[in-house]
Amino acid sequence: MILNPWYIAGLIDGEGCFCVSISKHQSSKYGFEARLMFEVEMIIEDKPLLESLQETLGCGNIYILNYERYGWRPHVKYAVKNIKDIEKKVVPFFKKYSLQGKKKKDFEFFCQAAEMFSKKEHLSFEGIEKLRNFQSKMNLSRKLK
């Protein structure tokens, strides 16, 4: 089922995450690897909703997460990690159907990061440092300051 795009914008404002990830990577030139990810995680009963989101955006994957060790119900995650899908589908979608809440600022940094990826700037030391700066202003990091 294709979802109303404004419904998606509201859903993502409440439940979504735009993420810039930097991890150590021995074989990369500067010892780090940067990645972008757009994701939504919900309880397992909402899997059909995330499947509809996947169908509407035309990209991404769905993962079943088991949190039994924490005493939680299973969850499901929809994630887009492919940079081309982020550039060609995710970013244009949310530029057209803009977010209204706190995720709007995260999305702005995410867009800047995606632009850096398209220019291959994330492959330099300076690029990694700029991405770290974005990270420090996004999601949970923003709340801690």
Report on the structure:
There is one protein chain. The protein is of the alpha+beta class. It has one domain (5-144): Roll (Endonuclease I-creI). The protein is built from six helices and four strands. It has helices at 5-15, 47-57, 83-96, 103-118, 125-136, 139-144; strands at 16-24, 32-43, 61-65, 75-80. The protein has a four-stranded antiparallel sheet with strand order 1-2-4-3. Strand 1 (16-24) and strand 2 form a beta hairpin. Helix 3 crosses helix 4 (103-118) and helix 4 packs antiparallel against helix 5 (125-136). The mean pLDDT is 89.
CATH-assigned fold name: Endonuclease I-creI
User: Overall 3D geometry?
Assistant: globular
Strand order of the largest sheet: 1-2-4-3
How far from one another are the termini?
40 Å
Class by SSE composition: alpha+beta
Rounded Rg: 16 Å
Percent of residues in beta strands? 15-25%
Helix content: 40-55%
Average per-residue pLDDT, rounded, comes to 89
CATH class: Alpha Beta
Q: How many strand units?
A: 4
- The CATH architecture is Roll
Instruction: Outline the biggest β-sheet.
Output: 4 strands, antiparallel
Work out the helix count.
6
**Uncertain regions: pLDDT < 50 for 5+ in a row?**
none
CATH superfamily: Homing endonucleases
Question: Secondary-structure element order, as H and E?
Answer: HEEHEEHHHH
Domain count: the total is 1
